Amino acid sequence: MAKPESTEAVSTIELAQRDGINQRKRQLYERSTLWLGRICLKLGLTPNFLTGLSLVCALVSGVCFWRGEMLWGVVWIALTGVTDMLDGSTARASGKGTVFGGILDHVSDRFGEFFILAGITLSGAIAPAWGLYALFGMLIASYVRAAAESIGKLENCAVGIMGRTEKVIVIMIGATIEHFIPTGGFPRTGWLEIALVIVGTTSIITAIQRMVFAWKALNGRENH
């Protein structure tokens, strides 16, 4: 019986170490962006306003992609990321972040992902199936994390081979190359389509990794 206990102890240590690394990365990110939040407060900008602005930028990005304006779509994705980062730093700088504000931010992110991927799918630059594939992957990865943290009461389940920011960067790179090397060149499927395949696949892998992480962390904990 000693071997299972030893394996369980090792797993617990590994989970604690991994969670500690994620927490340190998060803390470093929060400290390094706090000054931007202070500037936003001086300008009279609120976290919820910036969340709404981020959603508008995502909508505009989706429209640009739908119209086939790849570079403008990329620009507006970048603005979406900037405003999304600012709403969190502003909330921390004010010291008045609310639970509802956090929920609003997460829901807004999901809407933003839908607008961007819907615009890309409707543009005709990719096969619609790959657009749906990427959208499903991103949503299910986010849902698994949300479920683990809300239902499982895990402090942080932001694990996996690729986070949301990295996936968005892959889409931006694919769209930029697609502008200069349109579909029909090399590769024949198009660079943006390849980017969405990568995003969808890594998202599904991330969802599985988060499920495994939650299973190990909860370790048979009963639901109360």
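Above is the first protein from milestone M3; the second protein from the same milestone is given next.
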Amino acid sequence: MNKLIISLALMVSSMLAYTNDKPYTTYTGETLQCNLMEGKDVNDVLKMVKKDWYALSYPAPYEGWVLTPTLYADNDGGYDLFWAGFTTNNADMGTSLDWFYENGTKVFDKWQNLVSCASWSHWDIFEARRPANTLVEGDTGYWAFHSCNFKDGKSVSDLRANDIEWNEFLDGIGHDGGVWRWWAGGGSDTQNSTDYYVNISFSTMNEYGKYRDARMNAMMNGSMPEQIADCAAPRVYSANNIKAITTN
């Protein structure tokens, strides 16, 4: 997907119930949009990162994922895969990058022998719903991304109340995944008019299908929570966790 970049995530246990004064949990993400080099495939990349990237000991908590398109359109940019990495804030992302420039060159050289990346961008991420299950290193699942723009008369100040409604709806259908809102940061497309992206995680495509059925039924019977933004149809990615958050 050309204007999105992935992700996700930093999953932790228990469902999140928001109150009006509870601050959002926030993260910083980095994403690389990449195509495979001739003769290479996704399994080559996964094998390398699970061995070499996994062995890196970052100086700050860092989580890494490899994402591959599952449901997509022919005008989404044609990328074969994405790298998505997450830290708890922008300062930790900067610390991780400074450290990587000094200590990760051999691993990055192996990465560049497998893929050619067209972009590298940062994102500010707000957690609108915490997933029910703790992330286990090596987990796989699916992420659905929507590009969204506020409707006329709606703005950031309307998000919290709307998130409470949507969390109640998701609780009602038994959804265990998380929901994150992505805001563009450094390196993002300056021509992109999207206000933000919404990323929803699913353990299986069956779970994703049940969520879509529930939305359709709620739309038909009038029980769907207010939609304060117009969001495009989602792009869905297979998400392979490489490195869960660790510290030295």
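Note on the second protein: The two ends are 34 Å apart (CA to CA).
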